[in-house]
Amino acid sequence: MPTQLSSQRSLVTDDLHKLLDILPEPIYQKIETHPLRDQLVEVVMDLGRLPEARFPNEAVYLGDIPVTKEDLQHCIERVGTFSGDNRAGIERTLHRISAIRNRTGEIIGLTCRIGRAIFGTIAMISELVETGKSILLLGRPGVGKTTALREIARVLADDLHKRVVIIDTSNEIAGDGDIPHPAIGRARRMQVASPELQHQVMIEAVENHMPEVIVIDEIGTELEALAARTIAERGVQLVGTAHGNRLENLIKNPTLSDLVGGIQAVTLGDEEARRRGSQKTVLERKAPPTFDIAVEMMERQRWVVHEDVSDTIDLLLRGRVPALQVRSVDENGDVQITQENPTPEPYSNGQQNGGLSLPARPSGWRASGRMTPLAAPNSMPKKPHDDFEQMLEQSWFGSEPESEKLRNPGPNGEDWPVYVYPYGIGRAQMDQVVQLLDLPIVLTKDLNGADAVLALRSQVKTHSKLRQMAKGRQIPIHGIKSNTIPQISRGLKRILGIDDPQSEATDIRLFAHNGSDDELEALEEARLAVEQIVIPTGQPVELLPRSAKVRKMQHELVEHYRLQSDSFGEEPNRRLRIYPA
């Protein structure tokens, strides 16, 4: 019997009496007299338990007599045949009866879900339906995805006069029986013999019946996702639902990620990774999404709409939170559209919304300077590591002279100079490298104002706080193995994107700064051996015997060419051997 819902301004028809007719008489009488009868969601009957009626906000027992096998058989005889997915229906209605079986296949439980046709329920997205773009509906069970899908099919067929074909796997959209329910209007319905054949029926519908719109409920397998992409690529509008509450669920689901374009790992070049402020291996969308528009049904009258799925997925993969377009229906039945810009939540136990989300600065007494450490008791002397950790924490946001950042374009359009925050590295040595090589780098004590961090790898591994804060500000960390001038030079050049082994190694001044003539001669010997013999001919080379100090400098020089070297022989004839790559 049709009723008018004033809060939704939608016409509802549910044929409730046809479902109640299949129930045993005691259960029927309890529901018939219940004051919330028109809001009934489902009736649950489990063998040996009390029958239960579920409403939107509560569940009540229907009497005090447990369900018997005779009660279950009474219902089974009055419904259609249970298909491979253990679902049955009542002819010419939208009700769904689902069975629970024991290990021998005997039915020991029934879930009788009320099917309602609600006309006017898609007012929130009516203009999106008219665009002809493919629409994907997401939401938790019971939020009304199938009801909205049914109404979209009717509007497209009756109001927009399109050729609509519904792929009805469980007869849930158009009802049980061979004659579809009037709620789908002029749309046509194709039934599916068993759930695993749904993808074949999807392709058959396109090839045989020339639809302009295909409506699919519950896309859940990889084959169905591939069939949906095939249909979309043929120019047919798709309207469907998928398992998952939000778009983030589809990204993490390898089976259904193709619906939003598929996800692949991409390795970036050094320059691009530095420009993005990310790691070299990132996740990216590998194809256009199958569905152009996504609707997250948070509640029955509150939906989140993503009008461009590709933009939303790209933002999520980069760890950003997209702006949300929220649509709701007020008490007068008018649609309200608002934009919500969620702020990233503080970092906790890993990732938030696909990326790290940190506060702009540390908060609390320690960060504000109101808390001072107590002197360690004599019985528990502080360790050197504790002193080092305290010193580093005090240096997170050092005071810099107030001056405006000056930027000049580099040879490839980069912003120079680059502001570098040193972590666990001697500042005097970094100044020395910057001056010797005339690098466009400015050292800063303020992590917020830095473009990159140069740190010892051993310190980065043991101090997760630096990693957390740098990722929160999207500042790349470049690690070096040791606190030596050649290693610092290599790290700074890598930050600038000029990590050229040839140019690094030819600058002998770095490897023997203020060194003797013998040291310079030994380094020049190693450079010529690498550039004139090892690299061009691929042959190993032995150098002249040198002291341990000089051999160490030669090892570092060879390492900058990405080559291997070993020391062999006995003192004082111990010497270096350089191997090709």
UniProtKB/TrEMBL annotation:
GO terms for molecular function: ATP binding; DNA binding. PROSITE patterns: R3H. Keywords: ATP-binding, DNA-binding, Nucleotide-binding. Gene3D superfamilies: P-loop containing nucleotide triphosphate hydrolases, R3H-like domain. Residues 517-581 form the R3H domain. Residues 335-355 have a biased composition (Polar residues). It comes from the Bacteria. This is Single-stranded DNA-binding protein. It comes from Aphanothece hegewaldii CCALA 016.
